[in-house]
């Protein structure tokens, strides 16, 4: 169950990063509030997951989910353009996240 909390925490990291962009430097109240709520949810779920998962596993997975998710949102929602070599590194990051999960005993 702690892995589920960790994945959801990572997804909330994507939420707050995306709404932070939409907040236009915290000048739009609605998106600013969503950013803060996303941060709170992300941190609380990460804390819940680290009750039993080790920090050396949970934190990199959490940040990796946030990073890959933010890249995908940037490309799909905000129209960011990435070079082919950048996509190679995004895939490597995803492989690393999966590798950490698969090779851990937790």
UniProtKB/TrEMBL annotation:
Q: Does the keyword Membrane apply?
A: yes
* Annotated InterPro entries: EmrE-like, Small_drug/metabolite_transptr, Small_multidrug_res
Span-the-membrane segments of this chain are: 27-47, 59-79, 85-104
Q: Pfam families, per this entry?
A: Multi_Drug_Res (PF00893)
What UniProt keywords are attached to this protein's entry? Answer: Cell membrane, Membrane, Transmembrane, Transmembrane helix, Transport
Task: Classify the main location.
Answer: membrane
Q: Name one GO molecular function term.
A: transmembrane transporter activity
Record's signal peptide: none
Of the GO CC terms on this record, one is: plasma membrane
Task: Name the membrane topology term.
Answer: Multi-pass membrane protein
Task: Tell me where on the tree of life, at the top rank, the source sits.
Answer: Bacteria
Q: Where in the cell is it found?
A: Cell membrane
Similarity comment: Belongs to the drug/metabolite transporter (DMT) superfamily. Small multidrug resistance (SMR) (TC 2.A.7.1) family.
Name used for this protein in its record:
Uncharacterized protein
């Amino acid at each position: 169950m702690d892995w589920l909390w960790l994945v959801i925490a990572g997804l909330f990291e994507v939420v707050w990063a995306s709404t932070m962009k939409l907040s236009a430097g915290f000048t739009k109240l609605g998106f600013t509030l969503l950013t803060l709520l996303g941060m709170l949810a992300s941190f609380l779920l990460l804390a819940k997951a680290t009750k039993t998962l080790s920090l050396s596993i949970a934190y990199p997975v959490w940040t990796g989910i946030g990073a890959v998710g933010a890249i995908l949102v940037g490309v799909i929602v905000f129209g960011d353009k990435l070079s082919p070599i950048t996509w190679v590194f995004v895939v490597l990051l995803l492989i690393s996240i999966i590798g950490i999960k698969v090779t851990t005993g937790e």
